[in-house]
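tokens incoming
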């Protein structure tokens, strides 16, 4: 997975912090082996331009499931997920469950599912596994008309380019389809369970040097927040 992005920073309101902090979940115990890196895009060769709506730094896109349009968050820092309401509406069977730990250290049991078909632009995603969001998060998202998340496991085999100027996301199977400048780059490291994309940054302080691994998170309107541990090195 490769990402290029033109980013504009804006201050995120407190309520958005409450809503979106949930999406950085790390499975700690699972009843069965969890692997969300499954499913595929039906097209083998593709280069799709997706228009998005930007609200408080969040990228919202339209998807189609069973011939009905839904609004999803485009979030590379989270796996594919849907709200409790949409899960019930689609009458999907539960394929398993996972115990996850949120940023505050609280463990929660979430249901797993697999969606046979989802359309984003002209792209068709087939047999994609995902997580059903907890009720409280689903309710908060519903206030903003958001019913799910296009997540990192869906994008693991694609090259993604963001353009904040035109509010467009390009999803392609081949980087040659993009107008990329020949500048320094680095390979992203993908997480084992859901292909969350990480890159490394180098921080210099006097004659000292430290490296940090950073999550590329399109669901966060910031870019980098230094930890107190790094600040103190």
């Amino acid at each position: 997975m490769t990402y290029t992005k033109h980013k504009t920073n804006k201050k995120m309101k407190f309520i958005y912090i409450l809503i979106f902090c949930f999406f950085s979940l790390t499975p700690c115990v699972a009843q069965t082996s969890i692997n969300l890196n499954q499913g595929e895009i039906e097209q083998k060769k593709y280069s799709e331009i997706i228009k998005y709506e930007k609200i408080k730094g969040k990228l919202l896109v339209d998807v189609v499931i069973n011939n009905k349009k839904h609004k999803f968050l485009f979030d590379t820092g989270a796996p594919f997920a849907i709200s409790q309401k949409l899960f019930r509406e689609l009458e999907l069977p539960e394929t398993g469950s996972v115990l996850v730990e949120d940023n505050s250290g609280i463990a929660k049991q979430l249901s797993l599912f697999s969606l046979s078909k989802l359309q984003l632009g002209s792209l068709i995603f087939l047999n994609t596994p995902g997580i059903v969001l907890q009720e409280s998060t689903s309710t908060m998202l519903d206030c903003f008309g958001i019913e799910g998340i296009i997540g990192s496991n869906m994008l693991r085999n694609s090259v993604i380019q963001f353009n904040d100027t035109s509010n467009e996301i390009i999803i392609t199977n081949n980087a040659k389809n993009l107008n990329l400048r020949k500048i320094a780059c680095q390979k992203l490291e993908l997480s084992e369970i859901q292909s969350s994309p990480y890159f490394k940054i180098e921080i210099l302080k006097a004659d000292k040097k430290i490296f940090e691994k950073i999550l590329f998170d399109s669901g966060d309107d910031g870019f980098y927040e230094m930890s107190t541990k790094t600040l103190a090195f």
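note: Confidence is low (pLDDT under 50) at residues 6-32.
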